[in-house]
Amino acid sequence: MSEPRMSAETLRVLGAMLEDPLAWHYGLGLSEEAKISSGTIYPILARLEKADWLESRWEENGPAESEGRPKRRLYRLTGEGERRAMTELEEIARVARRVKSKRARRGRPEEGIARP
Amino acid sequence: MELLVLTLATLLGTLFALEAKAWLPRVSRRLIASAVARFPAELDAAARDRWSREIEADLGAFDDRPLGGFVFALRVRSKGGRDLAGELALAEKLAVPEEQPEAEPQSEAADQSLSYGFVAGRVYLRRSSLRFGGLPTAGFGEWVRVRKDAE
Q1: Is residue B55 classed exposed, middle or buried when 0-12, 13-18 and 19+ CB atoms within 10 A define those classes?
Q2: Cβ neighbours around B90 below 10 Å, total
Q3: Mean pLDDT across chain A, nearest whole number?
Q4: Which of A96, A115, B47, B72 ranks highest by number of CB atoms within 10 Å?
Q5: Is the pLDDT at A56 greater than 60, yes or no?
Q6: For range A31-54, the mean pLDDT
Q7: Rounded distance, CA B91 to CA B96, Å?
Q8: Residue B93: C-alpha distances to residues B19, B31, B83, B87 (Å)
Q9: Is A4 at the interface with chain B, CB within 8 A?
Q10: Do A43 and B72 touch (CB under 8 A)?
Q11: Does residue A87 carry a pLDDT above 70?
């Protein structure tokens, strides 16, 4: 099992999926939820699925037929994926907190460094 | 005259919009097909078909917004398709174990020449050891000393 590369977009996708880890999502919907470019979502999904963080299946006929559209590919976090995604996001949050507290100790303003 | 130009421009604009509305979904589908065509050649047909169907299904969400669908397809073709092709190529590479180069079978003649080489080496070392005494490598120092004396 390969380790997926963590980009900002990947973290956003994981964040969007973690809001409801048991729900099934489709690519375009996820890109809108995660606010990333629609073209970027498929490589991320391929990467996460390959690493077994996601499971996927085709949508059932019912909703697609009633809405008169083709069946979508649906994705959901696996148990391992959910655990690992939480760890990754907590790690990022921990780093952000550390940076914030260091900046506060140095007396830098919260908004950013004032440039002359 | 101005009124005529304005009317013509409006008419042409409307016609162009209608044409674009009819053509854009087709162009979008062609763009998706082109993105899929860039996937690695090693990718099996089932995987290729799966991604093609998936992206086309998502394109279906833009049925009433052909321009939005065109932008989506353009993004998939320009960046998403390339990145996805890269991911899939990597996945293929990781899935297939690297072929280990097989050791070339040695011929009988090669085996024999190797054993001759060993024998010749041993004879040389034995002779040099007898000639110069001590370790075989001492022979070289002795040879240098003899050469210097001769000069």
Answers
A1: buried
A2: 17
A3: 86
A4: B72
A5: yes
A6: 88
A7: 9
A8: 44, 26, 15, 10
A9: no
A10: no
A11: yes
Residue B127 half-sphere exposure toward CB, CA atoms < 13 A: 6
* Residues A37, B58: C-beta atoms closer than 8 Å: no
CB contact under 8 A, B57 and A46: no
Count Cβ atoms below 10 Å from residue A87 Cβ, excluding itself.
Answer: 10
pLDDT at A80: 92
Enumerate residues 47 to 66 of chain A having a beta carbon within 8 A of any beta carbon in chain B. Answer: 47, 50
Q: Is the pLDDT of residue B34 over 80?
A: yes
Chain A partners of B63 at a C-beta cutoff of 8 Å? Answer: 69
Is pLDDT larger for residue B53 or for residue A115?
A: B53
Residue A30 forms contact with B (CB below 8 Å): no
Mutate which of B54, B82, B92 to test chain A, going by most A C-beta atoms within 10 A?
Answer: B54
Q: What is the rounded distance in angstroms from the CA atom of residue B66 to the CA atom of residue A83?
A: 39
Quick one: residue B110, left, alpha or beta (phi over 0 = left, psi -120 to 50 = alpha)? alpha
Over residues B36-41, the mean pLDDT reads: 79
The top-level CATH class assigned to A8-105 is mainly alpha
What pTM did the predictor assign? 0.64
Q: What is the dihedral of CA A78, B50, A2, A41, to 10 degrees?
A: -80
User: Is the ipTM, as predicted for this complex, more than 0.95?
Assistant: no
Which of A91, A88, A95 lies closest to A51 in space, CA to CA?
A: A88
pLDDT digits over A73-84, tens only? Answer: 999 999 999 999
